[in-house]
Design goal:
The protein is mainly beta and about 200 residues long. The chain contains three helices and eleven strands, in the order E-E-H-E-E-E-E-E-E-E-E-H-E-H. The strands form two sheets. Strands 3-4-5-6-7-8-9-10 form an eight-stranded antiparallel β-barrel. A two-stranded antiparallel sheet has the order 1-2. The termini are far apart. About 5% of the residues have low confidence.
């Protein structure tokens, strides 16, 4: 496993963040097995996943977030980069442009890798306010024992794990071009009103 170190969160508590993350191994597709839902995610989303691809500069990651809602594929693309290029902590910033159908407003958030296993098959990702939490895995399902360990780790970091929501995942997962795409950003407008 990548080394871990303590870092001060904005709330004043200590949060463990992975040090020495092997970015190349972290790249690829991860499904969101459990999540503390954010306002910008469709409430009825399923097969939610993120695909990470390292760009040619070796420092910027292309991020593609996808979910399926009411038979349509919703997605948003953005970038991720280290919050402090000189640090070995896995503290990244992610930037998306909204609304997705006319991407003109930059929105930047924190993406802290709190844990990743030795084989880079599971990850626990959060942010310093402890409002958003993601349990990621490479497969469409996660072993219950592993899941319980990740939940315990999240509790230790001060997260309210009662807010975790399971994301339904099909096996095999749908391909990106297997469903119509919501090109009008209807899901985004609905998400503003908690739907």
């Amino acid at each position: 496993m990548a080394a871990e170190g303590k870092t001060t969160a904005k709330s004043g508590g200590q949060m463990t963040v992975v040090r020495g993350l092997d970015v190349a191994r972290y790249m690829g597709r991860c499904v969101r097995d459990r999540v503390v839902p954010s306002f910008f995610q469709p409430r009825d989303g399923r097969d939610t996943r993120a695909t990470y691809r390292l760009l040619e500069d070796g420092a910027t990651v292309h991020v593609l977030n996808e979910t399926w809602s009411k038979g349509k594929r919703d997605y948003i693309e953005g970038t991720a980069y280290k919050a402090d290029a000189s640090s070995d902590e896995a503290k990244l910033k992610v930037k998306f442009y909204l609304p997705p159908f006319l991407p003109i407003i930059p929105v930047v958030g924190d993406y802290w890798v709190l844990y990743v296993d030795d084989d880079y098959q599971y990850a626990l990702v959060g942010e310093p306010r402890r409002k958003n939490l993601w349990i990621l895995c490479r497969k469409t399902s996660i072993d219950e024992e592993v899941y319980n360990q990740l939940v315990e780790r999240a509790k230790e970091e001060g997260y309210d794990v009662s807010k975790l929501h399971r994301t339904p995942q099909d096996d095999p997962p749908p391909e990106s071009d297997a469903a119509p795409t919501d090109t009008k950003g209807v899901w985004w407008f609905k998400s503003l009103f908690g739907k």
